[in-house]
Amino acid sequence: MLAEIERERDIDKPAVEDRLLLPSSTGKMAWILGFILLACVVFSACTGALSISVKELTEIVAFKLGLISTTSVEEQKSIVFWVIRLPRVCLAVLIGAGLGIAGASLQGLFRNPIADSTLIGVTSGASLFAIFVLMLNVKYFGMLTELAGAYSISFVAFLGAAFTTFLVYQLSKVAGEGGITTLLLCGIAINAFVGAVTGLMTYLADDQQLRSITFWNLGSLGGATWTSVLAVAPFVGISVLFMPYLSKALNLLVLGESQAASLGVNMKALKQKVIILATMGVGASVAVAGTIGFVGLVVPHIIRTTFGPSHKTLLVGSAIGGAIVLTLADTFSRTIVAPSELPIGILTALLGTPFFIYILWEQKRKRL
């Protein structure tokens, strides 16, 4: 009798783990990466032109929370931490998480290890609409600037990301049966068209506009404020919170579209949910920080190689891993050429390209 109970418990264990968002292996991975992320956040918050020790940082936070009544830390360091350093670190964590989980989910949807948000037009659409604002702001967007102020570019860029993604999805239904292959081809076509229009706008830009366009496309977290953090947080939060619930369907999709559909996966609903959630996270991130490449491409590969291919682990790990990578990248971008600042898009591309090639080489070596 005891043996039968134990056997039934073992049989029911996977079912229980399926009902939970984080199974034991994923939970352990989340704890490990969570501690690494916390260490990276502390390191980033302490590093900069004005150095803050860990002891001073602890005292600053404790004083702000009312845990201690007096502090010996200079007021300048406290202001730098709360007004400049912490919003930037929070924004890096949010954007990294949004890019990481979007890359992992789109790779699962397209069953393509080199898929990312550019395939569905999120990045290119945001860039194009941002360029429209940068070039035509004075003449045509005066009212928008009065209403949105410094965030007019971010607002229009997010609309551009959403509009382009919607156009790709609708075109895939008109041009074919709306399958993933058709969606991919439509994404490539729209990206080519948007790239051509972006090139034309860049060609027509004057020197000042061209400089603004170039720096926006290179990506930066230099304009981080609590307002931008609060603007990005809901979109990235929804993406990170709800995307892991699609992990079971994405795992079945590995077998193929028809096989997944025969096992009960609603392919139309799955595509809509993944695209909407990915667009929300990446669109908000690109709108605030510009184009930041390779995070959504490289991080899922690292998590997949280290912790396995299950999407339950992959999606959660990619969100935390993306936050880690972008937090460290932003720290180096503002310190490596101090007092100047290296655009974070350049740094992620310089570090991401050779690392990505190394991952592909390792995978090929293991197959031989």
Topology:
Blueprint (H helix, E strand, L loop, with lengths): L1 H18 L4 H23 L7 H11 L10 H36 L11 H19 L1 H7 L3 H24 L4 H25 L2 H12 L7 H17 L4 H7 L3 H6 L4 H23 L5 H13 L3 H23 L10 H24 L1
Subcellular location: Cell membrane
Family: Belongs to the binding-protein-dependent transport system permease family. FecCD subfamily.
Protein name: Hemin transport system permease protein HmuU
Summarize the structure.
The model is unreliable at 1-23 (pLDDT under 50).
Please provide a written account of the structure.
It is a single chain. This protein is mostly helical. It has a single domain, classed as ABC transporter involved in vitamin B12 uptake, BtuC. It has 16 helices and no strands. Helix 4 runs antiparallel to helix 13 and helix 4 crosses helix 15. It is globular and about 65 Å long. It starts with a helix and ends with a helix.
Task: State the assembly state of the protein chains.
Answer: single chain
Low-confidence stretches: 1-23
Overall structural class, as computed from helix and strand content, comes to mainly alpha
The counted number of beta strands is 0
The major β-sheet equals: none
Output the CATH homologous superfamily: ABC transporter involved in vitamin B12 uptake, BtuC
Q: What is the annotated CATH architecture?
A: Orthogonal Bundle
- How many distinct folded domains? 1
Q: How would you state the average pLDDT, rounded? A: 84
Give the DSSP E fraction (strand runs of 2 or more residues): under 5%
What is the CATH fold-level name? ABC transporter involved in vitamin B12 uptake, BtuC
Shape: globular
* Percent range of helical residues: over 70%
Radius of gyration from the CA trace?
A: 22 Å
- N- to C-terminal distance: 49 Å
* H/I helix tally: 16
**What is the top-level CATH class?**
Mainly Alpha
